[in-house]
Design a protein that fits this description.
- The structure is a single chain.
- The chain has 207 residues and is an alpha/beta fold.
- The chain contains seven helices and seven strands, in the order αααβαβαββαβαββ.
- The protein has a single domain (50-206), classed as 3-Layer(aba) Sandwich (Rossmann fold).
- A seven-stranded mixed beta sheet has the order 3-2-1-4-5-7-6, sandwiched between helices.
């Protein structure tokens, strides 16, 4: 019987990934008192609200679209990008975050967890120009789909996915289709946390 979100997360991952995610949560606990990464919470709440939330979002996204490169914009504390890099060691993950203090934290996470597939870019999303386009552009906290779509022209491959992690109250802005005709809304991917909280990933495909 699984009694905690931490155990649940680790039941979904192999031993090496579980160890990395546990160390990541420990780093979040230590650093958030210094630079306000996440709201203060019990360790198990961090696992459910942040780690498991990210892991399940990436899982439903991966079930609908096979990807090998991902850009997490407005990454903040590294969610969901760090989780993606830890869980998918075969994939390229880029964290784009404009605040230097948070970038310093993310670089320490990369070093401590040995995430060689993770790159940290200290910039605004509109300033980020990758050498090669990526397959997924995702955000958990940015809340600015239009800004992401403007930037996606330089970031996403043709057929790539733009994904926004949203809560139950999110509604699609009907004006987006007219403003950004290159992006076709692909629907919402739903999942539920052990607490019963409903989550969704809104997805658009770049034509």
């Amino acid at each position: 019987m699984i009694d905690s979100a931490e155990e649940f997360v680790c039941s979904l991952c192999d031993e090496q990934v579980s160890a990395k995610l546990r160390e990541y949560v420990s780093m979040l606990e230590r650093w958030t008192t210094k630079i306000d990464l996440i709201a203060p919470a019990e360790r198990d709440d961090i696992f459910e609200k942040h780690i498991l939330d990210s892991l399940l979002a990436l899982t439903v996204l991966g079930e609908s679209f096979l990807w090998n490169s991902l850009v997490d914009v407005g990454s903040g504390a590294g969610l969901p990008g760090v989780v993606a890099a830890a869980a998918r060691g075969d994939c390229e993950v880029v964290l784009v975050e404009p605040r230097e203090k948070r970038c310093h934290f993310l670089r320490e996470v990369r070093r401590n967890l040995g995430l060689d597939n993770l790159e940290v870019v200290c910039a605004k999303v509109e300033q980020y120009k990758p050498e090669a386009p990526k397959e997924v552009l995702i955000s958990r906290a940015l809340g600015r789909v239009g800004l992401m779509m403007n930037s996606a022209d330089f970031i996403l491959v043709k057929g790539g996915r733009l994904a926004e992690m949203v809560g139950p109250s999110w509604e699609l802005d009907p004006a987006l289709e007219a403003q950004y005709p290159a992006f076709e809304f692909g629907g919402e991917l739903s999942y539920e946390l052990p607490s019963g909280a409903e989550r969704r990933v809104a997805v658009w495909q770049k034509s």
